[in-house]
UniProtKB/TrEMBL annotation:
Coiled coil: none annotated. This is Methyltransferase. Keywords: Methyltransferase, Transferase. SUPFAM superfamilies: S-adenosyl-L-methionine-dependent methyltransferases. GO terms for biological process: methylation. Residues 60-153 form the Methyltransferase domain. The lineage of its organism: Bacteria, Bacillati, Actinomycetota, Actinomycetes, Kitasatosporales.
Length: 241
């Protein structure tokens, strides 16, 4: 997909007709060569922003995939880093990465809606995974994150601004989401992945209802839109004592 090392059209078709878990198991060996991997520019910007708030003790990468975000945790967490994901295939690739983290890192298979941890983390991050959760699932998701954080612990993730209406990105995300809705209406098992519903106006109230205090800051590396608003924000939600 877009590179010689990425999956071909047939592979993508098989993955798209699978469940989320099975689809990512199949995609895992080539995932880092697709546009679905979080760009290094985003990871680096978040890492810089978090470094001024740290250091932290124990960190969790929620829906870690092959572990691109684990490097952010290793840079800002002194004690340990843990990645959790539902796909055994993605975790297997992550464990084999040269920068997998060694003895400081744990790779755990688990469901983000039923996390297998107690309140032991000081920082939870997540990159590019929220499209796999329907809006009605966000209260349960945020409650799980709240439950695994220590009091005062933080949940941080980048949140790009919505694509301007009429832009190329606007039509691309609209078309992708429409195609996924049609696919899920006629094919089972469903593959939940939608780009457009996860927006600040929905996310912030749900975080606050889950017991978080929410702080927003611009990621200056990505500039601003013509109206002056940031192209990408860092959302930092602190668990209230």
């Amino acid at each position: 997909m877009f590179t010689p090392e990425g999956p071909g059209l047939r592979e993508l078709a098989v993955q798209a007709l699978s469940s989320v878990e099975r689809g990512y198991d199949l995609l895992a060996p080539k995932f880092d060569h697709t546009p679905f991997r979080t760009p290094d520019a985003v990871l680096d910007a978040v890492g810089r922003a978090l470094s001024s708030r740290g250091p932290f003790g124990h960190g969790l990468d929620l829906c870690c995939g092959t572990g691109a975000g684990m490097g952010v945790l290793r840079a800002v967490c002194r004690e340990s880093v843990t990645g959790v994901d539902i796909s055994a295939g993605m975790l297997a690739v992550g464990r084999e990465r040269p920068d997998s983290g060694g003895p400081r890192a744990a790779w755990v298979r688990g469901d983000a809606l039923a996390l297998p941890f107690g309140p032991v983390f000081d920082l939870v991050v997540s990159f590019g995974a929220f499209g796999h959760f329907l809006p009605r699932e966000l209260p349960a998701l945020f409650a799980q994150v709240h439950a695994v954080l220590r009091p005062g612990g933080r949940f941080a993730f980048p949140l790009p601004a919505p694509a301007p209406p009429g832009s190329r990105r606007y039509w691309a995300t609209l078309g992708f989401d429409a195609a996924m809705r049609v696919r899920n209406a006629v094919w089972r098992p469903p593959f939940v992945m939608y780009y457009r519903p996860f927006r600040l106006g929905l996310v912030r109230p749900e975080l606050e209802r889950a017991g978080f205090g929410v702080e927003l800051s611009a990621l200056p590396e990505f500039g601003r839109l013509p109206d002056g608003s940031p192209r990408c924000r860092l959302v930092v939600a602190a668990r209230r004592p």
